[in-house]
Amino acid sequence: MLKLRCKKPQNLIFAAVQKLHITIQSLLLSVIDWFYPLFRRFMRLQTFRYAACGGFNVTLDISLFLLLHDWVFKAENVVLPFITLKPHTAAFLVSFCITFPVGFYLSRYVVWQTVEMKKRVQLFRYFVVVLGCILLNYVCLNLFVVQWGWRADMAKIVTTVIVVLFSYLAQRNYSFKSAVNQ
Fold first, then answer.
1. CA distances for 131 relative to 14, 64, 89, 166, 168, angstroms
2. pLDDT tens column, 82-111
3. pTM of the prediction?
4. Where are the domains of the chain?
5. E strands within 96-159?
């Protein structure tokens, strides 16, 4: 158990955040690993953790997207001083700002824990892959919604399937590549 014995306020804050991180990581691993025996025959533990964390982050992303698109932006264009965004684009950008750090945290501390690479290198690589995911998201959403006339919710779900496959392969083979994956 980590005790909070620090004299400087910034050290106290750091210790509290560190304690919170350890608690969250332990809780997530306990909950995810508790369900793993049901799936042991079908996939490795790391793949299961990726599916669980990715499933949570995708659910968060789709939920935020739909909430923002339908309730916050009310399916209308978002007019900013320098640009006007279509509601599906605005909803995607806002949900991304939330799910990017959540996804990195889950990837770094729950899924790919054994990778011995500096955090800033992982974060940069993760960001590069996420940029690819953003581009893929943008292209697919605009293709499905604007060009093909699909409903925004169906377009987002199909886009998510495509992006998840790309993301898993890129994260495993690039962002969090380890000696085991080589």
1. 30, 19, 15, 12, 14
2. 999 999 889 989 998 999 899 999 998 999
3. 0.75
4. 1-38, 43-175
5. none
